[in-house]
Amino acid sequence: MRRLPPLGAVRAFEAAARHLHFTRAADELAVTQAAISHQVRLLEEWLGQPLFERRGRVLALTPTGAAYLNDLTPALDRIAAASATARRPANGPVRMSVLPSLASRWLMPHLPALQAAHPEIDLQLTTTAELWDGKDTRFDLGLRSGPGGWHGLNSALLATEILSPVCSLAQRQALPTPCTPADLLGHRLLHDTPKGNWSRWFSAAGHPDLAVPAGLNLSDSALALQAAADGQGIALGRLFLAAGDLRTGRLLMPCPQLRIPNDYAYWLVWPARHDANPAITAVREWICATAQAERAALEQVLAEH
């Protein structure tokens, strides 16, 4: 049988220890400061150890308190996450954190197929560039770009990324055929983040010392693809994100044989605690299958260029 301390006192201590302030802990837990102080004293009596010490007007943790906090916080996070999963219905909602460029350029065009396949699932999307660590219980799944290997998260590789210049039909008609890297320099180049990809591409194309024109700087790869499709310049496109426009001819590749790999890939990530949830599993399997089909379609487009 487990010998547990008073759980209300544990919760009060953990909040006070995180804030190092009884009043802020009381605000977080919607109780009085006196209640926090009482609960902390109760826990110290149960443990037989002081957890806080006063240094003038500053509240500090004792070594025992610091070690106890280090163990308690992840344990309470797991209890909160398990409870959130248990209280939700089996069909959702499924809450997903999505990189904005991946949401607008890839996920949104495919969502009608997901809704048709699983009309019973309530899917809630939040676009954010913030990296989700899986501990934040606001989300169940994450679509992100990165190198992979995130501690504490299961992951599935959706696609590696390839970079190559893309432009509108009108822009392509203004370029010679065949088109060389040097031919692009007389036209506006569109830059997104991270900076330096155009320099990498020109270097791979045999121009390592080329001074790349400034062009137009955009904060997001989806914006760069949109600007290229609108005829505002030539983007160094992420081809997985551009796959739909490449298939329809809205975007063209002026130098199709000159491609470089991107450092990052696209991943689906989720905490292991969600493996048994049928709605989350259904969305996860659909995303992986859709990404696989998109990779095959992109390979066909690239083979035709």
Shape: elongated
- Chain-averaged pLDDT: 90
Distance between the termini: 68 Å
Structural class designation: alpha/beta
- Estimate what percentage of residues fall within beta strands: 15-25%
Number of distinct helices? 10
SSE order: HHHEEHEHEEEHEHEHEHEH
Radius of gyration from the alpha-carbon trace, in angstroms: 26 Å
Flag low-confidence runs: none
Count of DSSP E strands? 10
**Main pleated sheet:** 8 strands, mixed
**Share in helix:** 40-55%
Order of adjacent strands in the largest pleated sheet: 4-3-5-10-6-9-7-8
Structure description:
- Helix 2 packs across helix 3 (33-47), helix 5 (100-117) packs across helix 9 (239-248) and helix 9 (239-248) crosses helix 10 (278-304).
- This protein has helices spanning 7-19, 22-29, 33-47, 63-87, 100-117, 169-173, 197-204, 221-229, 239-248, 278-304, and strands spanning 52-55, 58-61, 94-98, 123-127, 141-146, 154-166, 189-191, 216-217, 234-238, 260-270.
- Strand 3 (94-98), helix 5 (100-117) and strand 4 (123-127) form a beta-alpha-beta unit.
- Helices cover 45% and strands 19% of the residues.
- By secondary structure, it is of the alpha/beta class.
- The protein contains 10 helices and 10 strands.
- The mean pLDDT is 90.
